[in-house]
Amino acid sequence: MDANAGALLAPARQFEDTKKEAGDLAGTLTEQQFNWRPAPEKWSIGQCLAHLATSDHALPAIDRAIADARTHGWLAPGPFRYGWFTRWMIGSMEPPPKRRMRTFPIFTPAAAALSRDQVLRTLVASRDRLLERIQAAAGLDLKRAIVVSPVTRLFRLPLGGYFAFLAAHDRRHLWQARQVREESGFGIS
Length: 189
Prior knowledge:
Layout: H1 3-26, H2 31-35, H3 45-53, H4 59-72, H5 84-93, H6 116-137, E1 146-148, E2 156-158, H7 159-182
Antiparallel strand pairs: 1-2
């Protein structure tokens, strides 16, 4: 396996793990438990998982980075070493969170009750779409291809760094969802 494939393997595994862990975490919950919030300002398990599926908003930006790399012939076997900002952004997502972050409106899950089965289906489909992008990125220069955030053009990460950022983001919110289950009063009205 070349270093390029290795750079994509870790995020691909995380996206597969996200699908499994989300199902294991929420698959047997009642709708009440799935939507239970430990406090008004905190998210339910359903909201944590629904939030992960909002990463679909980034797919056009990822597609543009892949297309640009293909158009320009930016191919590289790796390994890839990312700059301090990319490494910091990935690290900032790792659980447990070191600080709370504000969520941009397009990534904010609905406050209304969510359907457990619908959220799980949506999350699995979302992760499958990310896995398709990882396959499409194979062989590309994962450092030179840049993903521009759908929120602000000022936030840019190399394609490989963006996949790693999304994988760390999955770990963060799966951790957050597990913490909801540990709250006293979990699932009690």
